[in-house]
Amino acid sequence: MTYDKVKQASKLSVGTKQATKSVELGKALEVIVAKDADPRMIDKIVNLCLKSGIEITYVDSMKLLGKACGIDVGAAVAAIINE
C-alpha cells in the first residue's frame, strides 16, 4: 500500500513547494499526490513529473497522506527522495 511506502521512506519532501523543488533537482524517485487536493495546487508538479518521467501515485486523501508523512495536517503532495 502506498501509505506504507511513504511511512517507510527514509527521506521525504512534504508539501507542494518542497516536492516540486525535489523533482526539479532530480532527487525525487516517486511523487504521491492526494486525489482531493486542489487541482491548482498540484497541476504544476503533476506536469513536471510527466515531463521528467517520475512516477506519480495517487492516494485518496490529503488527511491520510499527511498522517503517513508524520504531520498533523493534510498534505497535497509528498515526494520520496533518493538519498
UniProtKB/TrEMBL annotation:
GO cellular component, as recorded: ribosome
Key word Secreted present: no
Alphabetized InterPro entries for the sequence: Ribosomal_eL30-like_sf, Ribosomal_eL8/eL30/eS12/Gad45
Domain Ribosomal protein eL8/eL30/eS12/Gadd45: from-to ranges: 4-82
UniProt-listed SUPFAM superfamilies: L30e-like
Alphabetical UniProt keywords: Ribonucleoprotein, Ribosomal protein
Protein name per the record: 50S ribosomal protein L7ae-like protein
Source organism of the structure: Paenibacillus lutrae
